[in-house]
Design brief:
Shape: globular
Strand order of the largest sheet: 1-10-9-2-5-8-7-6
Number of strands: 10
Number of helices: 12
Structural class: alpha/beta
Strand content: 5-15%
Distance between the termini: 33 Å
CATH class of the largest domain: Alpha Beta
CATH topology of the largest domain: Rossmann fold
Order of helices and strands: HHEHEEHHEHEHEHEEHEHEHH
Helix content: 40-55%
Length: 323
């Protein structure tokens, strides 16, 4: 097998309940019981860690059996969940490492860029050149089955809008296709602000939450892929649901009665639970751990291999492409 970095370099060179029916004498009692049950029933809140996406499918099936497929929303992360890099350079764990170095020491000799903007620029180059694969064999087939069954599906990623083309290319190449069952919103394809301090509540967030979040970064949503530019995933999902063509003041979550959320990062799982903590919608969150072994291996490594690979690629860019 060829070294993944060699493939990357070559790529650069060649192109860049139903209420039970009782006897008639009990009919007057049924509405009272139903109202009491509705008043005392608490929304489902589940948190799990799994390395098997089949467990996510089981949870979707459980909600679909109770509410119907059309009332269930599946929200899935992209990096290290639906797709993982074929090499460490440019991977989610590589970016996390580089970001941590910048936060601790902007003069660190192992940094590939002197500021965050430069790091994003380099990440964009690596996304453009690299190929990705599903962390779990058969994962695209599992997702396709859910889409075929009309489970509305959203890919919710922390990537910014500038990385959309690379994301769409690799999802398509790995045979993910969620377009037949995506969430429809009022905004057309393009860039928009997820919320506005001048109009609190218009897009699903209170003035207090907006004040805590601060000024928004612009996002995009198209073909079921929501690029949120590193912002709070729970509140970003709320703003998206508020834009649904089926949302209203009385139905802020459109027609959905349950959400299943999957992400490899615990902080995003926690934020999703935080965002919907006071809402009357069922929520099951999964921290997807399939790539944990690769992440741990990278974190414990000397990082010499990614430093070498970047030096080779950067040297090629400077000597061959930049004149």
């Amino acid at each position: 097998m060829s070294h993944p970095f060699a493939v990357l370099l070559a790529a650069f060179f060649f192109g860049v309940s139903a209420t039970p029916v009782f006897a008639q004498s009990q009919t007057a009692e049924v509405p009272a019981r139903a109202q009491l049950a509705e008043a005392t029933t608490q929304p489902v809140r589940r948190q799990e860690t799994t390395a098997e996406f089949a467990r996510v499918v089981e949870q979707v099936d459980e909600f679909a059996e109770e509410y119907g497929a059309e009332s269930v929303l599946l929200v899935v992360d992209l990096d290290n969940t639906l797709l993982a890099m074929n090499q460490d350079l440019g991977s989610d764990q590589w970016f996390t490492w580089q970001e941590a170095l910048q936060n601790s020491d902007q003069a660190h000799p192992e940094l590939v860029a002197s500021d965050f903007g430069g790091l994003l620029e380099i990440q964009g180059i690596l996304f453009a050149l690299s190929r990705m694969h599903p962390p779990e064999p058969g994962l695209p087939d599992l997702v396709e089955d859910l889409v075929t069954r009309k489970i509305t599906t959203v890919v919710l990623t922390s990537r910014g809008k500038e990385f959309r083309d690379a994301a769409e290319r690799e999802l398509k190449r790995n045979k993910y296709n969620i377009s037949p069952s995506t969430l429809e919103i009022h905004e057309k394809r393009g860039v928009f602000s997820p919320y506005s301090a001048e109009h609190p509540g218009k897009h699903g967030l209170s003035a207090e939450i907006i004040d805590d979040l601060g000024s928004p970064r612009r996002v995009t949503y198209s073909e079921g892929i929501y690029m949120t530019a590193g912002q709070h995933k729970g509140y970003m999902l709320k703003t998206l649901l508020a834009r649904s063509t089926r949302a209203s003041a009385n139905q802020p979550f459109a027609h959905f009665k349950a959400i299943v959320f999957v992400d490899d990062h615990q902080k995003h799982v926690d934020r999703m639970q935080e965002a919907f903590a006071g809402d009357s919608i069922d929520l099951a969150t999964f921290r997807y751990s399939r790539e944990d072994g690769n992440v741990e291996k990278f974190n414990k490594s000397t990082k010499h291999h990614v430093i070498r690979d970047w030096d080779l690629l950067n040297g090629f860019i400077k000597t061959v492409l930049v004149k």
